[in-house]
Amino acid sequence: MARRLPAFTGAALKISWQASRRDTAAALGLNLAAGFFTAFGLLATTGVLESLFAAGPTAERVLAALPALAMVAGATALRAGLLAGASWAQERLKPQVERLAEKRLFHLTTQVELTAFDDEEFHNAMQRARDNGVPDSATVVEMTVNVLTGAIGVLATAVTLGLLHPVLLPLLLVTAVPDGWAALRTARMRYLAFRRVSTARRRKYLLSDLMAERLPAAEVRAFTLREFLLGEYDQVAETEQQVELDVARERTGTRVAGSVLGGLALAAVYVALGALLSFGVIALAVAGTAVLAIRTGQTSLTSLVQSVNRLYEAGLYFGDYLAFCELARNRVPSVGGSAAPPGFAEIVADRVTFRYPGSDTPALHEVSVTIRRGEVVALVGENGSGKTTLAKLLAGLYTPDSGTIRWDGTDLAGISGDALREKISVIAQDHTRWPLTARQNVTLGRPVDPVRLAEAVETAGADEVIGRLAHGYDTLLDRRFHQGQDLSGGQWQRIAIARAFYRDAELMIFDEPSSALDARAEHALFERIRQHADGRTVVLITHRLSSVRHADRVYVLESGRVAEEGTHTELMLADGQYAQLYRLQANAYLDRSTA
Ligand SMILES: Nc1ncnc2c1ncn2[C@@H]1O[C@H](COP(=O)(O)OP(=O)(O)OP(=O)(O)O)[C@@H](O)[C@H]1O
């Protein structure tokens, strides 16, 4: 612990300084000044006691004690004022530090490579950093200041006792040991328990979301999942509860032991003081001040030990936060040296292989495709054949394990991801239903250009959708908020398609863009794509083979490899997998129309 504390304190003071220099300086400076007045007040008390215990009439003794008493009162008042100022600065620091820590976390989570989100270890670390690390960053700062305050208080009493008589110093230490031991032991127990249950807790949160969120609510009922989910929840919660109960028992035991030892230590201190007094080592006034100083010192010590304890505990979580930041930083793709090419005449994926983290088999194996400017290239194949994965690689969202993706000879591996993605529109199969207004759902962070917005929305057939919304473009598309509205699956898909057109990118990637569209909307969309989406280059993934008839080239993927390629006519002539699937779909229509 002694090894780790300086690191936590150092990191805490650094983040605190970055959050607010003024409040950090005030919190530390005012506490330091308050410590000085603690020592001053105690020493002045000796003066009061000496005057009171001196020989002579009571009235005279009280009168003689008055100047020292005034000094004690002044020191106490000043100390109180300084402590109030320090505590205000500390209170102000809390939200500022928490905000900074949280922002840093999101700064990283929005930058890390996409595969990090497929990694369990990363997820666990992220959850711990978010749920405990961020709130505890403020606690670490608060406790660091408290530790310094406590230490200053103890130092002030120690100096006072040392000045009164050096022999009194060890007595102060004796009272500190038992409490310190108990507090640190319990903190560590709690942290170890937290780590033991962290996976179970994550699963419990997931189950809580499934039982109490709007989206899965219908399916929970439709599949009568209630008992099943509650059973799963009980299992996980039972594990967590058992660990908590064990910890509660162990902590109580340690605390009781600490209190008993603490009581014994205090009794020993009083016996020692009595002995020193009776052997004439110290005077009565000194013994009186020593009792007061030890009491004051004990209060500072208790607060110091408690703060060290809390600092240690919060520091462990804060350590998790720092470790996660380090982990995430290592997973931020290095920004390539070259800027993205302004455009392309040809995009080539050359023998690209890609494996998801933790997966034994590659999702793509030596896949080569060519996309020329202005072409519509279709990727088809059975479920799990690798179409979406290839699309994500083409979009620069994943980087190949081997092989290259080049824009006119420029390898994308050397290009800044964000600059490249500016030139690409991807409409994912599982596009996000952003809890934003209809307008923001289309423009997605880009400046609003009303003319382009209207065009994109019309092209995607989303104008009817927006026209029917109570507040048009300003309607919030989330039912969980006041005046929020929800859309049907197909209506959402139209909004998502409008996003692609609004982005005005060189390369447009549509992954199953028509799965939820009605026949008319689907026809209109493919007509638009057939007209080469106004000269743009399109990669189209779809299971509706009738829609790929007009593509310039079709790649048929099978188990992560390119099985066939060519135009529709060539592939039909080749009579391979594509021709088989095409006939299967066409026959299904024929059967229905003749039935
Ligand atoms: N995040 C992931 N982590 C691990 N494996 C994944 C991940 N996403 C996809 N896979 C696996 O990679 C393979 C290719 O998946 P992909 O989504 O590219 O297929 P697809 O051809 O788009 O399928 P579909 O037609 O069902 O959309 C599958 O075996 C799938 O299980």
UniProtKB/TrEMBL annotation:
Keyword Membrane found: yes
Signal peptide: none
Annotated GO CC locations: plasma membrane
Its membrane topology: Multi-pass membrane protein
InterPro entries: AAA+_ATPase, ABC1_TM_dom, ABC1_TM_sf, ABC_transporter-like_ATP-bd, ABC_transporter-like_CS, P-loop_NTPase, Type_1_exporter
Protein location: Cell inner membrane
Positions of transmembrane segments: 24-44, 64-89, 140-161, 167-187, 261-294
Record key words, sorted: ATP-binding, Cell inner membrane, Cell membrane, Membrane, Nucleotide-binding, Transmembrane, Transmembrane helix, Transport
Domain of life: Bacteria
Primary localization: membrane
Protein's recorded name: ABC transporter ATP-binding protein
